[in-house]
Amino acid sequence: MKKISIAMAVLLLACNQPTEKKFLQMPDVEQQNLKGNITRIETSTYTVDSNGNMGPMDTCCNSVDEFDANGFSSRNESKDSKGKLMSEQLYTHSDDGLFTGMTSMANSKTTSSMTVEARDGKYTVAKMLDSTGKMTSYYDSITTNEFGQVTGATEHRPDGSFKGSFVSMYQGHSFVGNESKDSSGRVVYRSSVKLNDKNDQEQVTETNFGKDSATTTVTTYKYSDWDDHGNWLQQTTYNDKGKATKIIRRAITYAAEKK
Length: 259
Prior knowledge:
Blueprint: H1 6-12, H2 28-31, E1 38-48, E2 54-57, E3 62-67, E4 73-79, E5 85-93, E6 99-106, E7 109-119, E8 122-130, E9 135-144, E10 150-156, E11 162-171, E12 174-181, E13 187-195, E14 201-209, E15 214-226, E16 232-238, E17 244-254
């Protein structure tokens, strides 16, 4: 989902079976096709050797995701291979489950943030702010599906001029692709996602459109380990030539069951 900020990606994720509690937006745990009362996921990325075997931990792309009691994302942190904190994001939601904002931090200082406003259970505007709290752009014309997931929005510069737009497609609650346009209305990015029989990503096709040419990449995902809840623990990524490029391991923490 390039061309869309991390914050908007979180909003886009804002899903298996309906929850017992009725929220206006489906909890993130369900949106991410996760099962069970999950409180924390630690993700580690490893390099692969020429035979596709797991190598040393990568220096990037290691993260921890935390979820609140209702299954909504509350915090994400990115670490290097030595465990040093590189950045973190804090997420907030309303009592009825709508995403209300995000703060990005590095070295204990705010680097950017996002605030989201809603009326009558629908998103109305999402404002992107820099480290000083100054607005850098905003999204309106925000549309959602029956699960509360964002299906499109228009981005404007602070002066109100058109900056771009995007649409996102879902199969039920599962994300299956999106498209972004620039200020001229030209498509600059398009993706499509193929799901496996467990509703996990199996193949992602991404196309970046330049002024005179387009570049397409195809990434395939295979899974080789699952826990007792049916959540995958190991994912291997392959490029369009069938070569393994990285391995991701997940350690999932569940809340203690009440007796």
